[in-house]
Amino acid sequence: MTTAAVPKRRFGVKRWIVLACIILGAYLQFGPLPTIAPNVFLPGEKIGHPPVNIPIINQPLTNTLVATLLTDIVVLSLGFFIWRKVSSGDMVPRGFYNAVEALFEFLWNTAVTTAGRKNASKFIPYMATIFFMVLVANWMELIPGVDSVGVLEPAHGNFTGYEAHPIGSAYWLDGRHELPHDESGNGHELCHSCTITPYVRAAATDLNFTLALALVSVFMTQVFGIASQKMGHITKFLNFRALVTKPVWGAMDFAVGLLEMISEFAKILSFTFRLFGNIFAGQLLLFILGSLVSFIIPTGLYLFEIFVGLIQAYVFAMLTLVFMSQATQAHGAEAH
Predict the structure, then answer these.
(1) CA distance 291 to 28
(2) pLDDT for 96-109, tens place per residue?
(3) Model confidence over 166-175: pLDDT tens digits?
(4) CA-to-CA distance for 218 and 263, rounded, in angstroms?
């Protein structure tokens, strides 16, 4: 009769690393490198002095636009990576590809359950692209350097400025020395009371990004509705025929159609401000609590923001799927 050897419990090296990081964070917070409360801007901030202009459209480059372009690159690279894996003939999912495949399979099953297999094949490219686009844009704010590495600028207006210290050819802001605004130099000939305009700021904290996604979602919903219902989709909003065939009740049907049209515009506002509000609020939460306590607590907030970013991406994609599915279904007397 044999007994299996019981492995001894080890106090692994990973927890020592975590403990060391906590101690280092506490030392930096209360020692030589205290965190600062960053200035909060609602619109995307222009980069450079003078601002860098985008060719052709001749518009200034903003940090949220940089984040959007990086998000595009990541999503396109992800699509290319999946295409290469599928084309290689390797049918055994491994590692990162296994996680992406499981996530995409979940989206596909959701689309089939909601819209049916025939419509799911038409909707899934838009649904999945929106999901991964929003997911990457949301999680980008959690990458170190985003919202914290950028161009040193003089503080102005009601914004707080700090003393800047050189580190080689770069500078860091000393949170222990909050300075009044002054145009005089400070050795590095940039600013006396300084603030930072980050190179990259989470794209979803800019209304332009969320509005663009909302417009794409609602526009494609109308495209699928017209392709499926033809003029029946138009009469859902502008039912002039009912005014002629049913003079009394037709007026009510026409009024209901106008309300349906208003609801389509309301979807744009709902999409835009729901995503923007959740991500912008999460960013502020990370800023404020991170500036107060830079260790232990931000870790829990990061885990929470990972969850929020995932949920917001799923909600945006799921609502897009539901609206597209509803647009392809006949309404009222047209269904008979």
Answers:
(1) 12
(2) 788 888 888 899 99
(3) 777 777 777 6
(4) 11
Token pair recorded at residue 280? 């912008």
Strand partners, 178: 162
Name the token pair of 297.
């607590």
What residue type is assigned to position 87 of the chain?
Answer: S
- Quote the CA–CA distance of 56 and 38 in Å, as a whole number: 33
Where is mean pLDDT largest: 7-21, 82-96, 235-249, 264-278? 264-278
pTM for this prediction: 0.80
Amino acid type, 21 = C
Dig out the tokens for 282 from the structure.
């999460």
Binning pLDDT at 50, 70 and 90, where does residue 318 land? very high
User: What letter would DSSP give residue 46?
Assistant: B
**Amino acid in the structure at residue 23:** I
Give the distance from CA 11 to its chain's centroid: 38
Burial of 117 (0-12, 13-18, 19+ CB in 10 A): exposed
Give me Rg for the CA atoms of the chain.
Answer: 26
Q: Which amino acid, residue 226?
A: I
Q: Are 285 and 121 in contact (CB under 8 A)?
A: no
Q: Which residue has the tokens 């309300």?
A: 259
